[in-house]
Specification:
The chain is an alpha+beta fold. The protein is 52% helix and 12% strand. A six-stranded mixed β-sheet has the order 2-1-3-4-5-6, covered by helices on one side.
């Protein structure tokens, strides 16, 4: 119920439900509430949920990362640095972020800040072309998904290009046979950001393809500019 109410935008009702239910809220409930706060960018409730989660599961770095994301969306870079300092002092590190796609029985893995792919140069060249195409269709980069302070939007857009699911989708398109109608399949170990989600919808239009993305939360089926999750994930 907390998840359903929160994702639908009824954060006040979800909060009331938590406050009045006969059970003591556990980490899963507070986590669902925090996730809803991230979707709807409600920092006030998010800070309440995060405080509870820090006590219930202090070693879970994902809660700190969500709060860094929310603070970055609000341009509260001082709070972003504060969370980073807390994580450093507690010895917490975010887990590795990766996406992979399979081409001809071989898995191609793309790491955030890790070993570059052997065809990295060609992939970025194709991705720049692809982004130019989808911009003509109405795509606008979501700067709220840039979680570090940058001097201008151009620098932020470059950071967004390095997201692993974009690289995996692009590589899948590069290796896709022109006559093939098979979807591009990508698996990511963490939740996909809203910018990559929007980009995938536009890519499905630009290239007339279907994209199946399994992220850390759910499956996404992109087709003709729409996603099976109806933009709630």
């Amino acid at each position: 119920m907390v998840d359903l109410l929160g994702r639908a935008g009824y954060l006040d009702e979800a909060w009331d439900f938590i406050q009045t239910m006969p059970l003591k809220p556990d980490a899963s409930m507070w986590g669902a509430f925090l996730g809803s706060c991230r979707i709807h960018r409600n920092l006030e409730y998010a800070e309440i949920a995060a405080k509870q989660l820090y006590e219930l599961e202090p070693r879970n770095s994902a809660n700190y990362v969500v709060m860094m994301s929310l603070y970055a969306m609000s341009n509260r870079w001082g709070d972003v640095d504060r969370i980073k300092d807390v994580m450093y002092n507690e010895g917490l590190k975010p887990g590795p972020i990766w996406s992979w796609t399979q081409i001809d029985d071989r898995a191609h893995v793309f790491y955030a800040g890790g070993k570059p792919h052997e065809d990295e140069g060609e992939i970025y060249f194709e991705l720049y072309q692809l982004v130019s195409e989808i911009k003509e269709l109405g795509y606008v980069a979501d700067m709220a998904c840039v979680h570090q302070q940058v001097d201008d939007d151009a620098e932020g857009e470059k950071l967004l290009l390095s997201h692993t699911e974009k690289l995996a989708i692009t590589y899948g398109l590069m290796k896709r046979r022109s006559s093939s109608s098979a979807p591009i399949r990508v698996i990511k170990n963490t939740r996909t950001c809203s910018d990559c989600h929007t980009a995938a919808k536009f890519i499905s239009i630009a290239r007339g393809c279907e994209i199946l993305l399994k992220d850390g939360i759910r499956f996404h089926h992109f087709k003709a500019g729409k996603c099976s999750c109806n933009d709630y994930w």
